[in-house]
Design brief:
16 strands; 5-stranded antiparallel sheet; 29% strand; Dihydrodipicolinate Reductase, domain 2; Rossmann fold; 6-stranded parallel sheet; 318 residues; disordered N terminus
């Protein structure tokens, strides 16, 4: 039996090996987790499938696309969730681009990938778009907080013939929640005496407020109801007529909760979405990458624009 090795932080024991299609593959059994995983080696680096529970493994059963070589931009909690979901769906993580990665290394890694996925920092998004355009690689952007730059960057991508899909929240359930909750709120706000407010809750480390998802909901409700929204309430005085509020709460390790509150003369309604983990966001991002690459679409897309096409062309959701 081969000696223990450190695989992505897990002491692992090699239990078998094979080499189909030019890949060297070895199963491992983690000393920390009893589930089997697989590590794959390529000429450019190593992509490791860490042990994952049965629920995560089921993410790979709905649709098997051609294997993608994915370059991760950022390797925080979301980057790690992307890795878990992508490998469960049969894809490979070619490598990680971090803030300290040298420019030439970034170019080399990007060219070795089929698609890039960015969950990093808002101020780095323009550079990551430049990298995708220079290397001709599709890019999925889940980073938030760069709304003011988006129109100009989107036009740059279109002019250059790039392929980018963006969303402040890649959860498929959230996108459907926004679509139907906004429609319901819009109908009710046409009636006399109805008011609305939005609340979002996230973990203490979230860098922006309100969340991109809360902004999206607020923007759509404001557009359809001819109202304006404000972040928080005035320190003094009443909330102006024709204005509704968005509030944010930061606590512990909350993954993300979004709530639309509707108050009418005879009814009170709360519409809530609460994330159970980061894998839901990662799943939507990986599905988007599959669509972007294999449909060979060019342009700058918001997930909302192409959600139905993604779901219709890449199979059912587990």
């Amino acid at each position: 039996m081969a000696p223990n090795r450190l695989v992505k932080g897990f002491p692992a024991e090699i239990v078998g090996s094979q080499s189909p299609n030019g890949w060297a593959e070895r199963e491992y059994r983690s000393d920390c987790h009893p589930h089997l995983g697989m590590e794959r080696y390529s000429g450019n680096g190593i992509a490791v499938a860490p042990p994952f529970p049965h629920a995560l493994a089921s993410l790979g059963t709905a649709f098997r696309s051609q294997t993608m070589r994915i370059g991760l931009i950022g390797y925080g909690r979301m980057g790690q969730a992307i890795e878990r979901v992508a490998v469960a769906r049969g894809h490979l993580i070619e490598g990680v681009i971090r803030s300290e990665t040298p420019p030439e290394t970034r170019l080399t890694l990007a060219r070795a990938c089929d698609v890039l996925v960015d969950f990093s920092h808002a101020d780095a998004v323009p550079a990551h778009i430049e990298l995708a355009l220079e290397t001709g690689r599709p890019l999925v952007i889940g980073t938030t907080g760069w709304d003011a730059l988006r129109p100009a960057l989107a036009e740059q991508v279109r002019q250059a013939g790039g392929a980018i899909i963006y969303a402040p929240n890649f959860s498929v359930a959230v996108q459907l929640f926004i679509r139907h909750a906004v429609a319901l709120a819009t109908h009710l706000l046409k009636l006399e005496g109805w008011d609305v407010a939005i609340e979002e809750i996230h973990h203490r480390a979230k860098a922006d407020a309100p969340s991109g998802t809360a902004r999206k909901i607020a923007d759509q409700i404001a557009h359809h109801s001819q109202r304006e929204w404000s972040f928080g309430v005035p320190e003094r005085g009443r909330l102006p007529e024709g204005q509704f509020t968005v509030s944010a709460l930061r606590i512990g390790s909350e993954f993300g909760t979004h709530r639309i509150l509707l108050d009418g003369p005879y009814d009170w309604m709360e519409l809530t979405h609460r994330a159970k983990g980061r894998e839901g966001f990662a799943y939507g991002a990986v599905r988007s990458a599959e669509w972007l690459l294999h449909r060979n679409r060019k342009g700058f897309f918001h997930l909302e624009e192409v959600l139905d096409e993604i779901l219709n062309t890449t199979g059912r959701i587990d």
